[in-house]
Predict the structure.
Amino acid sequence: MEFDSDLQSIQEMRGAVKRAKVAQKKFEEFSQEKIDYIVKKVADAAFEQSEFLARMAVEETGMGVVEHKIIKNQVGSRDVYESIKDEKTVGIVNEDRERKVTEFAYPFGVIAGIIPTTNPTSTAFFKTLISLKTRNAIVVSPHPYAAKCTVEALKICNKAAVEAGAPEGIIGWISKPSMPATTELMKHKDVDLILATGGGGLVKAAYSSGKPAYGVGPGNVPVYLEKSCNVKQAVKMVVDSKTFDNGTICATEQGIVVDQNIKEVTIRELKNSGAYFLDSEEKKKMEDVISPLRGGKLNPKIVGRTAPKIAEMAGITVPNDTRLLIAEENQIGKDIPFSIEKLAPIFPLYAAKSEEEAKRICLELLELGGRGHTLSLHTNDDKVAKMYGHEMPVSRLVVNTPSSIGAVGATTGLKASMTLGCGSYGGNITSDNITASHLLNIKRLAYGIKDVEIPKPSENRVVESSNSSESNEIDEIVDQVFQKVDTKDLDPQVVSKIVEKVLKQYQ
C-alpha cells in the first residue's frame, strides 16, 4: 500500500516539531558554558565537512562551483561561529547599574527554518548555529531540489550536538519536503518563529502565517563604478564576485553602472577578465533564455550555471574560458530581461553621462526588485560613498569589495550571515544581517530611580465640571438681555446674579 507523498511529508514534519518542542524545554535549562560547548562542536563538525557537502550540493542541484561552495560552507560554519561565540545568550545578558536595569535572555522556542536551493548547506549550518546558540530548537524544510545535501548537513550538525550533550530532537528536518508540509510547518501551533530564505512567494507566506518571521527580499544589486575608482581593481572584484558560485548569492552584483568617461577602459578590463560582450542579435537570443515569459520571471534553468552553458542554451558560441556574458543596455523594467535579478553570470552594462544619471539608474534597478537589499560601489571619493549611503534605499552599501561575499560578512565588518534583512524599504522587519541576537527575547528588571509627585485632584473640579452647562446657559441669557435693552446703566454682574437666582428657583 502506497501512502500519499504530501501526507508522509506532513506527518514527518509534525513528528519533528513534536520532538523539537520536548527537546527545547530541556535545552533552555542549559548553562551558557554548556550551550557554548555544544555550538563549538557543531561548528567544528560542519567546517570539517565543508568540501564533502559542497560537492554533494553541486552534484544534486547542478548549481554553482564546488570550490566556492566550500568557502560558503566555511563562512556558514566557522565565520558564523566566530561572530557569535562571545555573545551572552543565557540568564543575565546585560546589567546597567546606574539605571538599575537588568536584562535577561530567553529563547523563542521552536524555529522553522526554510532553506533555499542556491545555498542549501551553508544556510543550514548558519540557521542551526544561531538557533542552538540561543537555546532554540530548529526544524528545517529544505528546498525539494536540494533536500539530500541539506538533510546531510543537518545530520552532521545533529550528531555533533547530541554527542556534545544536546537532547535528541533539538535539530529536526523534513527529508522529503513538499509545499503543503512547509506551509503547515510555518503555521504549526508549536512553531514560535520563522527564518525564511527563499523566493518572494515563500517569504510572503512566512509573513502571512500569523507567526513572528524573518524573511528576506530579492537582491537586484547595482554596482556603480564611479569615475574616481581604480578601474582594473574594481573590475577584478566585480568579475570575481559575479562568478562566485556562478552568481547564486542574493547579494551578488546584478547590473554594472559605469561613468561614461571610464566606459571604454572598463569594457577593455572586463574583456581581459573573461567577459564576452554580446552583439545585438546575440542579446535578443539571450533575452529569451533569461526570461522566456518576460514580466520579470527568471528562467530557473540558468540559475547557478556557467556562462558557456547558458550561452549554449541560447545557441550562442563563446570561448570555453568565458566567465561572464555582458550586453550593453539602456532600459530597465520587468520586460527587459537583462535588468532583472539574474542568479547567474550575466550582466547588463549601463553607461551614465552624469552623476545624477548614475543615481537614477541605480535607483531604478533597486526599485525593479532589489529595494532594501544591497548596493555595491567602487570609488576613491569618500564624499560619494557617504552620499550614496545617505540617498540609496538599501540596508547595506559595500564599498571597494566583492558584493557577494562582502555583504554576508566575509570581506567586511558586517555580521557573518546567510540571511540579509531588507528593512522597511523591502517590506522586512529588520535591515540587519540576521544573527543570534535576532533569535532572543529580552526581559527587563527595572527598579524605580526617580520620585514623581502625583497631584491630587482639586475638590471643586468635579463641581465645576458638573455645573459647566448651567454656567453656559446663564451666559447665554445675559447676552440676550444686553442685546434687547439699553445697557448704559446695567451692571453685567448684577444681571448675571439675577438670572442665576431665577434659574435656581425653577429647577
The two ends are 91 Å apart (CA to CA). Residues 467 and 473 are 10 Å apart (CA to CA).
